[in-house]
Amino acid sequence: MKKIDELRQELSTKKEEVRGLLENDKVNEAEAKMPEVRTLETKIKLQSELDEAEEREVQNKLENRKDDSKMEKRTVDQDMEYRAIGKFLLGSEMTAEERASVNIGNSGAILPQGFVNQVQVLTDGFPSLKKYCHVIPTTTTSGKMPISSGSTSKKLAKLATDNEMVKEMITTKPVEYATEDYGKIIPVENSVLEDTTVDFFNSLIAPDFAECAVNSENEEIINIVEANSVEFEATDYKGIVKCLNTKVKPSLLKNTIILTNQSGYDYLDNLTDAKGRPLLNDSLAVEGGKTFKGREIVVLDDTELPAATDKKVFYIVNLYALIKFFDRKGYEIAVSKEAGFTYNQTFVRVIERFDTVKGDSRAAFKIEF
């Protein structure tokens, strides 16, 4: 019998004693027994709390064992996936289970989701513009997709009478996309490739690939921004304020950012108001980020976003509206032994596929002064 059951039985007996005394008009004796009743009730309450705490502790241990078991299984599965890819790349013999774990692409093996996740984590450490765009996953290399071309009248029409408005509301247009291959070739010692592990892919391949991927994606995005931004004349930072207030439609303001380079950011970061307080504010959404008039400032290297000599450049742009980023999911890996034969190396090639297409350019302005 559990301790709490013994206490409950003792309490029941003690209460019967008190009731018997009361029935015989022995009030004083009954009152003398009541502290014992209250003490037992307190003991039962405390014992119940202890029992519940112990049950939770046992349950947590069981759950942790389940999680550890799942994690161990995931680790084993992931190790096997990477080991199988290594064997596939080297042309080594594989077990039936290993062959089943390798997803073959057009010209190589598709890297597992764990690698994709690792690249995503690493790209967050770079100034990636992709996350501000409208990212559209695709499983095909090319195709068409309808997108809004930007209506001047964003409201509903009375379908029975507002015929002209209905025509104006049909503002979608098909855009064509064709994803292209963007790759990175990495020379690897043959002995390293033969001992392929999760760490090989996530620690050696992923960091270099992630940085190169961000730079390539940024370049394509910047090309569209530069080609479709309308010039807005200004002589100082007040022009940025004027552009935000008068040119960007309120419906597009929410996702609008201020895109600049290091020199432009340094200029803004040194601005102060009449009381000497900085005009830039800490971003509530981005750790370590800054905002100007409520708009997030995104900073690129001077070489990535060049300005005219002795000038500073700023793009007031809603990248989500402007850029349709067609992202063909998955990274493909292949090798070539011939190119590095004399160095006892194997050249590892990792490929991603994407395309960037112009969308709604109503919130894209360039300021240079």
Labels describing this entry:
369 residues; alpha+beta; phage-related protein like fold; seven-stranded mixed sheet; six-stranded mixed sheet; 11 helices; 24% strand; Phage_capsid
Give the helix/strand layout:
Layout: H1 3-23, H2 27-90, H3 96-101, E1 103-104, E2 109-110, H4 113-123, E3 134-138, E4 142-148, H5 163-169, E5 172-178, E6 180-189, H6 190-194, H7 198-228, E7 230-231, H8 238-246, H9 250-253, E8 257-261, H10 262-269, E9 281-282, E10 290-292, E11 295-300, E12 313-317, H11 319-322, E13 323-336, E14 345-358, E15 364-368
Parallel strand pairs: 3-13, 7-15, 8-11
Antiparallel strand pairs: 1-2, 2-13, 4-5, 6-14, 8-12, 9-10, 10-11, 12-15, 13-14
Helix pairs in contact: 1-2, 4-7
Number of β-strand runs: 15
Terminal-residue CA separation:
85 Å
Shape: extended
Beta-strand residue fraction: 15-25%
Alpha-beta classification: alpha+beta
Order of secondary-structure elements = HHHEEHEEHEEHHEHHEHEEEEHEEE
Q: What Rg, in angstroms, do the CA atoms define?
A: 33 Å
Largest beta sheet, briefly? 7 strands, mixed
CATH superfamily of the largest domain: phage-related protein like domain
Named CATH topology of the largest domain: phage-related protein like fold
CATH class of the largest domain: Alpha Beta
| Mean pLDDT over the full residue set | 84
Widest beta sheet: strand line-up: 7-15-12-8-11-10-9
What is the count of structural domains? 2
| Individual helix count | 11
Helix coverage percent of residues?
40-55%
InterPro entries: Phage_capsid, Phage_capsid-like_C
Protein name: Phage major capsid protein, HK97 family
Subcellular location: Virion
Main location: virion
